[in-house]
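Record type: monomer structure entry
Structure origin: computed from sequence
Chain ID: A
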Amino acid sequence: MDNQMMAKTFDVIVIGGGHAGIEAAWAASSVLPNGEIAFITMDPRNIGVMSCNPAIGGLGKGQIVREIDALGGIMARAIDATGIMFKMLNTSKGPAVWGPRAQADKDAYRDEVQRLIATRNNIKVIEATIDDLLVEEGKIKGVMLDEPVYANAVVLTTGTFMRGLMHTGDTQEKGGRVGEGTADGISTTLRGLGFELGRLKTGTPPRLSKKSIDWESLKVQLGDETPTPFSDFLQKDFPSLSQVDCRITATTSEMHEQIKANLDRAPMYNDQIDAESGPRYCPSIEDKVVRFAERTSHHVFLEPETVDGDSVYCNGISTSLPKDIQKLLIPMMQGCENAEILQYGYAVEYDIVRPHQIDATCMTKSVRGLFLAGQINGTSGYEEAAGQGLIAGLNAARLISGVEPIRLGREQAYIGVMMDDIVTTTPREPYRMFTSRAEHRLLLRADNSDERLTPLGRELGLVCDERWNAWEKRKQELYTIKEEIEKRKLGQLAKRSDTTIKELQSKLSEFDPKLVHRVVSDIRYEGYVVRQQAEIKRQAKSEGRKIPQELKPETISGLRNEAIDVLNEFKPATLGQASRLAGITPADITLISIAIQRLGTNKLTSG
C-alpha cells in the first residue's frame, strides 16, 4: 500500500479504514475504474480489523452480507476466504428468515481485506488524520491534512473514533479501539457546519487465553457439516482454513450478585458515560442482570479469534466493570476457573451525526458531496456499516459522474430497509438489523440476493465480468431445475409441507442441492410472494414519489404544526419516507400529495 499522496486532487476521498470505508472505497473504484480514490486512515495496518466480535453475518446481518456480494462488494469474499466456523442460523424456521454466519480468523480476515484493496490500482491508501473538511457554498471541496486534498465527493466513516472515549471502571482512555487514537477535530468541524451530533455507547467483552480454559469440560458448538459460503466467488478449496469449534459456558447467580453489588463502579450505570442508551440487542452483562433480574444465568459463547492463536472472545459478557471485578467474575464460569484474561472488556462512547440529516443515498442534506456511512450514522455492526459504505461509495462516484443517486427500496433489499429506517428515526441506541424489520422478508431471502441485485449492480458498474459470468451461469442452472420440476410433475409435491427438501433433492440429484432448495423455496412461497408483489405495486406510486426540495411544509394548507416540525427536521425525500415518520398521519400524507401535485401544475403553467 502507498502511504504517500500521489495527487492533491482525487475523484472521491474515503475517510476511515473500517468496514464502511472498505466497501465505500471498493464501490467507488468499481464505478470509476479510470478515476482515483483516496482512502485515508490513521493506520493502514488496521484496515479491516475486527475490533469486536470476530464474526460476520447473523439474522438479518447475513442477508446484508449476501446483498453486498450481489452488488459486487468484498465482505462476503473476505469471510469465505478466512472463515473458521460457518453456521446457518434459524433453520428450524422457513428459509426467508435463515441467517448465514461465520466465525473469522480475525488476523486472516484483516490481511485478506488489505490484499483485495491492494488489487485496485485506483485506490490510493494514505496514512493521515483529517484535521478539517473543506466546504464552500454548501458543497464539499476536499479535506485538510497537513495541506489541502481536493475532491468533490467525500465519504466520512469514523466508526467509534469521533471523540472516542474508552471506559474500564473509573479508568478512562481516549480512543475508539484499544491501542489506537481518536478523531476529535472532526466533531468540532461538523458542529461548525451546523450538524446536530449525538453520543452513543457500546462495549466489548474480555478476551481469555484458550490454554487457561478447561476447554474439554464445556459443551461443544459445531459449525455446519456442509458449510454455506456467503459469496458467489467460490473459493477453490472452500472452506480454505481449518475449521474450529466453539464452547458454551454460562454466568451464575453468584456472578450476578457480584455485578449488582458493583453497579456503582460500572460506567454504564454510574453516569460516568455521557451518552444515550447502549445497544439493546447486544447488551452489557451489567444491563442483562438488571433488565432480566429473574434470570440466574446467561449463555456465554467462547469463540476462538484465530485458527492457531490463544485468544478467545467471550460472546455474551460485554462489560464496563473495573479490572479487579472482571478478574473476580471470570473464574465463576464453568471451565474458566483458572482462565487468564488477555484483554479486559471496556465500554466506548463516541459521537454520531443524527441520521435525519442524511438522505437514503448517504449524502448529507446540507453539504452536497459529503456522505456519511457506518457508526457515524448511529448503527451497530460490521455488516450494517459495510452496507452503508457500499451505498455511499456508489453514490459518491455517481455524483462525480453527474448521474442520479441510487436509493434501494424496502422491497429490494435489507440494505434498503436499513437506509429507510435510519433516515426516518432518531437513534437512541445503536441500530441493528433483524429479519423482523423487513416487511417484505419473504422476497428478501439470503439465497436470492443475486437474483434481486446482481443485474442492478451490473447496470450500475459495481459488478465485474467474473461476478456477472458466475451469475449468468447460476441463472441458467436455476431455469433448468425449474424446467425439470415441471417436466417431472414435481410441483405439487414441492408445495406439500410434509415433503422434505432432501426428498426433492434426491429426485433431482444431478443438480446442486442448494439450488434445488432455492427453487423449492420459490415454489412454496409463490402464493405469498404474488400477494406481496401486488401490494408493493399498489404502494409504488406513492412510495417512490419525490417531495420537491422547494416545497416548504409551512406553505401546505391545513398541515398540522407537529407535521410541519417533523418534516422540517427530517426533510424526507419521498412520500414513502414521510409516511414512516413519527408524528405524520395518513391525512398529512394526503395534504402533502396534493401540494406536490399543485406545485407541479404551477410549474407547468408558469413554464
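Annotation 1: The domain at 12-201+350-452 is CATH 3.50.50.60 (FAD/NAD(P)-binding domain).
Annotation 2: Residues 513-543 form the longest helix (31 residues).
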